[in-house]
């Protein structure tokens, strides 16, 4: 590692002749203006246009610019990982070549890492972040990808961002298996990190050149998500493993709620002599209270949960979420049974699973969002 550099800016490229000179100049200007000693790594996938020639000229003129041409195993994520291995500083910044990511924010990422964060993530979905000039189809795809990512990293609003900075120690010796375009997911899932910060930014669609989003990219991403999930289960560490434990605990609490519900329904109907629907209402409410109690003291255990006024707020939220889950379950049951012709028990199982996902995600992100 060359300590002469504060920061290594990694720019993956493929057929970026319209953008490469401008983005390198913009990044270099930002580094100079902020007083950062930064190197710029252009990691190219053997472009077929004039990108390589332009990059060679930039590297010849600027001592802090290097070009790495990759002849095999092409892909944005693979290029970024190659950039990690060639970088000479202790902090890596990843930025797209097409000005989708604003270079002027690079100093903010560097400062965030300097403030003891392991990862700094540019977020389009937190307050202050947004996306400009995207068609509806691409927005839907992006939101879907983000939803999958947040299932693994619920505390991060934009885990599929391509604009991020990371300490060398996070990725050093990490068993990264880069594929597709979502390299940050791989870093978060397999790197060694404890703290992160998100920085809002406005994502602008590429100014020049052609978008490289293809259907195969979606399949690669789904494979990547499953690989990260199984990796966490095998190694039992990292952020994803801790989330799996919460999901498992939430599921066990749900099972306890079923037992409470069934037991009370039987006792109140058979021994207390109550009408079975009244017994069911009481049993449902007490099972919700049971589930809330155990989730509050176990699944999402936190010192903040001790405050009574917040506890009442969380209980009200949990109650509404549970009602929503019940409606989802019934809706899925009806639609699959009456419209799709699915056997009612299978339809009910699908409804339970979807309602479980709803209950967990909403409670995780809202009811116990700080746990």
TrEMBL record:
Q: Name one Pfam family in it.
A: Glycos_transf_2
What is one Gene Ontology biological process annotated in the Swiss-Prot or TrEMBL record?
GPI anchor biosynthetic process
Q: Does the keyword Cytoplasm apply?
A: no
Q: Please indicate if the UniProt record lists Glycosyltransferase as a keyword.
A: yes
Question: Transmembrane region positions?
Answer: 247-268, 274-294, 315-336, 342-362
What keywords are assigned to this protein? Glycosyltransferase, Membrane, Transferase, Transmembrane, Transmembrane helix
Localization of this protein: Membrane
Q: Where is the Glycosyltransferase 2-like domain?
A: 8-171
State one molecular function term (GO): dolichyl-phosphate beta-D-mannosyltransferase activity
Q: Write out the similarity annotation.
A: Belongs to the glycosyltransferase 2 family.
Protein name per its UniProtKB record: Dolichyl-phosphate beta-D-mannosyltransferase
The species this protein belongs to is Methanoculleus taiwanensis
